[in-house]
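Anyone else keep sequences and structure tokens together like this?

Example one:
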Amino acid sequence: MIIDFVPVWLLFFLMVGVVLLSSEIGYRLGQKIWGKSQAERESPASAISGSILGLQAFMLAFTFGIVSDRYETKKSLVREESSAIRTAWHRADFLSEPDRTASKNLLREYVDRRVTLVASGDLDAITRSQGEILTKQRQLWEMAVVNGRADMNSDIGALYVESLNEISNLHAKRVGIGMQARIPTAIWAVLMSLLILGMISLGYYTAIADSRRSRVSPVLAVAFSLVIALIAALDHPGGSLMPVSQQPLVNVKSEMTGPN
């Protein structure tokens, strides 16, 4: 989406400009119509303006709810992934050597890589690293398969395989929700359209009410723009603008230090 190429701080100032410009257009349009004919009444214009702004408020709340829920899901997935990795780490103790040491080293590298990448906030690096992460998952899986075939009736082996499956599934969920799930372009288009139309109608109503421009109009522009910018920051892929705490993974990493 085009919004991905616009920094959030720039989007904020652009939205302030759009809100003020839309209000000014509506005000001048109202002055022009009011100057030609004073048949336009305030009540219908006020009702229309209020309805559009009400729809705008609903869309803002709806869109913010989407990104807010997704942000909470990201935090939950970090906790779940750290728990799954910790479980796999402990269950690896039941593997025979040299697979026990090799699997623990891979898990340690896996966690270290994930923590380092997220901390860097480099979206391109995170994207490029997906192949490396999947390779480590595949190596862990191959060792689990070898040990599982050695003893097909091993409950411990089955539990270890289960923990690896959980790690793989949670990684896929984190990629899908953190980097691929986005607010649809149609919602952004409706959100922006309602904002512009709402400000035009508000400016128009101000003009036909024979009122001067309010000095607090910039405050309204800033308020709307702040919410839009916050939604964009929460929707940004990778969470580099609104990072999710990786402390659960950091805790697991610290537990993995020391001898195997």
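And example two:
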Amino acid sequence: MRIGEVARKVGVATSAIRFYEESGLLPKPERTRSGYRDYDPSVIDRLAFVRAGQAVGLTLGELREVLFIRDRGDAPCRHVTELIDTRIDEIDQRIEDLRRLRRDLMTVAGKAAVVDPAECPPESICRILIAPIDDPA
């Protein structure tokens, strides 16, 4: 199967397929006598897996690990579960960090609403941002 046909079936650019191949996510395809890549039909499932993994936030490196486990003949499900659990923990931490940042921004916005720019000392760039978050300004 030529690269263009694979690209159409999976919905990715041919450049992405070449990139995945160079990155070790796809096996090197056979070549026709004229030098065209001739992919095995199994590459369709492999590309679908890569796209699904990326859609849930797995990195290409993580997906390469999973594919290596499968290519070794082992079921990678336990490893995939660990990757997903780790990603969930990372997202939970990121959400917590974003909530903290939002609280800080709301505090700064509240200070900004009551600060008179005329009272800002000339040696200060902007006391709204320089003052500690817990300082009422």
